[in-house]
Amino acid sequence: MNPQTTLDKRRDQRVEFFLIPVEREQLPVWVFKPEQDVMGHAGVVANVSKGGLQILTHAESPLQDSRYQLKLILDEGQGVQPFSAQLRRAWSESLTALVHVNGFEYLDSNNAAAEFLSNFELFAKRKVWIRCVLLPL
């Protein structure tokens, strides 16, 4: 059976599960990928700076490309993605056996996603996870 055909026939929204290390524990986080982005890599924003960000992804499917389109998933119930940005992957390394951390630079720092993510500390303090999808360019 062709795996691509199987993926295309699924009717339900795709979900990926992460165990994110926080202090001395691992917290469960789910990322629901919208149907149109099923071939993208689900991720969780881990860290943000003025020039880029770090995103956690599954170790089972490591990132191979150097450029990605980032789509932020803000409304988890509907998979609404009002922000996106183009990124260049600078590095990747293993965080745990299941999770990789990837460093990205914005290709254009004057975009809505970069502006939105500049408030990342507010999300981190409230332990609100910013979910995303990375699509190869």
Tell me briefly what this model is:
With 137 residues, the protein is mainly beta. It is built from three helices and eight strands, in the order H-E-E-E-E-E-E-E-H-H-E. The chain has one domain (16-136): Thrombin, subunit H (Beta Barrel).
Across the major sheet, the strand order is 3-4-7-6-5-8
Question: What pattern of helices and strands is seen along the backbone?
Answer: HEEEEEEEHHE
Question: How many helices in DSSP terms?
Answer: 3
Unreliable segments of 5+ consecutive residues: 1-8
- Total domains: 1
Q: Approximately what portion of the residues adopt beta-strand conformation? A: over 45%
Number of strands: 8
Main beta sheet strand tally, sense and closure:
6 strands, antiparallel, barrel
CATH class (first level) name: Mainly Beta
Which second-level CATH architecture applies? Beta Barrel
Shape: globular
Structural class: mainly beta
**Gap between N and C termini:** 28 Å
Evaluate the radius of gyration. Answer: 15 Å
CATH fold category name: Thrombin, subunit H
